Structures are given as structure tokens and as C-alpha cells.
Amino acid sequence: xxxxxxxxxxxxxxxxxxxxxxxxxxxxxxxxxxxxxxxxxxxxxxxxxxxxxxxxxxxxxxxxxxxxxxxxxxxxxxxxxxxxxxxxxxxxxxxxxxxxxxxxxxxxxxxxxxxxxxxxxxxxxxxxxxxxxxxxxxxxxxxxxxxxxxxxxxxxxxxxxxxxxxxxxxxxxxxxxxxxxxxxxxxxxxxxxxxxxxxxxxxxxxxxxxxxxxxxxxxxxxxxxxxxxxxxxxxxxxxxxxxxxxxxxxxxxxxxxxxxxxxxxxxxxxxxxxxxxxxxxxxxxxxxxxxxxxxxxxxxxxxxxxxxxxxxxxxxxxxxxxxxxxxxxxxxxxxxxxxxxxxxxxxxxxxxxxxxxxxxxxxxxxxxxxxxxxxxxxxxxxxxxxxxxxxxxxxxxxxxxxxxxxxxxxxxxxxxxxxxxxxxxx
Length: 426
Prior knowledge:
2 domains, elongated
């Protein structure tokens, strides 16, 4: 840090003063609006103190920090004597502002400004955060902790190499697939909880991103109970397409070069699906939409992690062996059976094999599409059992059949003419 034996340049110091006072005022204004005794002037002065102490030297920074602690102690003592309460949040914000002022004095701009914005958001969203925390279920809290455990504790210590002589199993790859699948599921579970009350359509989309079969089961049962069976076709199609988008994201994350082979069939399926959705919406007319909530389980649990991992290993090992024995058709057959159980794990396994060069990116993309088609096929028996209107069941069966046929045709055309290979290697 600079010492006091030289003159500070005027322009940089003016900028630092403006930034330090600005971030102090930002947080202080929120405290004023919350009717706190420590407000905009105190926060601005403390931030300016941190900036000046940083310019003066390390000893002044330590002395200033001691002064802020004494100020915090005095404010809490006064609060205890007045209404027997502690100003813990305001005290923490005051110390953070002092450190942000120190960073400004050291020449940082982005970090202190971003820090002040985040502090202000946390202070201003007190009621929303309390309401969100109060509405959490124990299983959701456990899921968040488990997500951090598998991502930041277990994954870094796993060996990133094949541990068998046949080059079939890489622990790091298997665990990375678990993190990706669980992370996407957890994120979209949060979105589902936040937005599901806006309507069945959003619920079907977010539910399909988490688990398309569970979403279709919930939607089918719910619309039957509220006499909205006519919406079954559109809702199931939305959940199915959301599942395909999730698998496309997974394939792109693990093997970006497989994107071309995955896009071609999905475009064909999307066009057919969009056509059917448009026709179904026109057939339904302007029927008022009734909001509903999908009761999906929390996406992260030990049982699901074990199932994802074991299925990933089984698909990767069997896919590698069948590919060596029967070529690309062996992997496609494995993907078809794997998609009936979990298209996400199947997609991650195929994309991982492509990343390591065990299969071509084109074959990995085709395997992703086949797994998605198999997952879509599983949804039909769910609708057959839940929806009692045979006319709607027949229409949905026909629509899903044409969508699956479009995907299969696109895969066969791509495998026969090598379209995706030409796109990747023009």
C-alpha cells in the first residue's frame, strides 16, 4: 500500500472518493428506508474511511477496522438498552461496507460495486427471503446440501482416468454426469416451484425439464380431476419437447461436436410437434386456463444419485462393448433400452464416450435422439391409464407416433447419408 510520503493524484482519488461514498449511500439508503438508526450518512462515512485508510497504509486499515468494531458495539449497546434487540444484520453490513471501501482505495471498482449491490439486495429482500426460507421443505434443504457435496467435495478427489484394463470406466466422468443431471434437475425444480402457479403449460415445460414421465403423470391426473382432459395432448407434447431440450443441453455440455447430429432429428421432431400443438390449441379454442401446481419430488437424493451413477456406468460399459462388437447399431440398441429408464443418463454416457473418442460425435448425437424417443414412448402408457377419454387418447397416440416417426426417419437419413458428418467436417 502507498505511504504518506508522497502526493496522491487528484483525478484517481476523486474517482475513488465518489465510488466509496456511492456504495455507502446505496446500502445506507436501504437502511434508512428500513427505519434503522444507522443510515445513509454513517454508511457513507464508513466506506470513505475504508478508502482513506487503504491509501494511508496497512496500520491505518487495522486501526479503522477496530474503530468500526467499536462503532458496531456502541450501536448494539444502544439498541439493547432501548428495545432489548441486536442489530446483527446492520452491523454485518457496516463491516462489509468498510472492507469494500478498503478495496476501492486499493484500486478495485467492480468488486466493491458488485458487493454493495449484492448487500443491498440481501437487505431489501428480507421478507421475500424469509418467505422463501420458511416455505422450504426439509427434503429440499437436504437436496441443496447434497448438491454441494457431490459437486465440491467428492468430485475433486475422484481419479480422472480409466481404472480398468479394458478402458471402460472413468470415475470422474461418471460423477461429472451425475453433477450435470442433478444440477439441471435441481435448477428446474426451483423454477417449477416458483412459476408453476402461472398455469399448466409452464408446469408441463418445467416438469418435463425435471422428469418428463413424472410431469406427464401429474398433468394427466390433474387435468382429469378438473375436467380439462382436452388439454392433455398439448401438455404432454410440451413435457416431451422439454425433455428433448434437456437432453440436447446435456449432449452439448459433454460433447459439443455431437450437436449437429442431435439437432437434425430434433428439428424434425420440433416441427411436427409445433404443428400438432398449433392444431390442438385451435381445436381447444379460448378455454380459460386454470392454474395448477405439479407435485414433483425433490430431484436430488441418494437413491437418485446412485440410480443415475449405476445406470450411467451400465450404459457406458455395455455401449462400449456392443459398439466394439456390433458397431454403431449396438450403441443405438443400448440407448433405446437406456432411454426407457433414464434418457438423461443415457445421453450423458453416449456423449462422454464421444468425448474420449470411443465413438464418433455423429453416433453420440444419434444415441441421444434414440434415448429421447424411447423416453417419449414411455409416456404413452401413462396417458392411456390416466385419461379416460378414448378420443383424446387416440389423438395423442397418433400425434406422438408421428413425432417419434419423424425422429427415427431423421436418424436413419443422417446415418445413411452422413449429413451431420458433413456439417462438422465440410
